[in-house]
Write a structure and sequence with these properties.
eight-stranded parallel sheet, single chain, alpha/beta, TIM Barrel, binds zinc ion, binds D-xylitol-5-phosphate
Amino acid sequence: MIKIAPSILSADFANLERDIQRIRTADYVHVDVMDGLFVPNITIGIPVVQSIRPTTALPLDVHLMIDRPVRYVKQFCEAGADIVTCHVESDTEENTHEALRIIHACGKRAGVVLKPGTGAEAALPFLKECDIVLIMTVEPGFGGQKFMADMMPKVAQLRAWIDEQNPACELEVDGGVDGQTCRACIDAGANVLVAGSAVYKATDIEAKIRELRG
Ligand code: DX5
Ligand code: ZN
């Protein structure tokens, strides 16, 4: 079954509770955390995760686009994140292992994220420790960008390695996923689709979530 993780980056921040209720037929709530250093944008942080936690029963899928996330993963877990993903480009290999270890020690699911310019093999040192691998299909930083179809071979490669090495691991894609591009992601082997603008711009959100499941 394909899971849908709407990104609240495209929600109305003055009405976050209402906009999280609107996606209750989805599988995860995708939370994009940006620090203005790792990416050229600043979004939401630990207090917001803590505030939205009681508003939904859905797992919070927290995508950290921050420098050296090992410094903050414990706080995000304690604030109520259920899944925490860290970019492999944001720290040393050793610190990324440490971040995954801390997330698991908090009893939460952990994963790594690859930017478009990062090769599939960058996920390999972490694959056995991951509950999820996230492949970016846009440059991280902003919602509403164009889907990069040339990332599909990378998704397919990760699917093959996950099936061999850690079949329980989920494979997520993020960026420019809509009613058209979802098909390529599913065909390449992704099982979790993040979608921000496609979901929140839809007049019928429930129907859009159904459509994205393929
Ligand atoms: C980009 C974020 C994405 C983004 C997706 O840095 O990680 O989650 O919000 O938005 P859309 O679906 O509009 O590309
Ligand atoms: Zn994201």
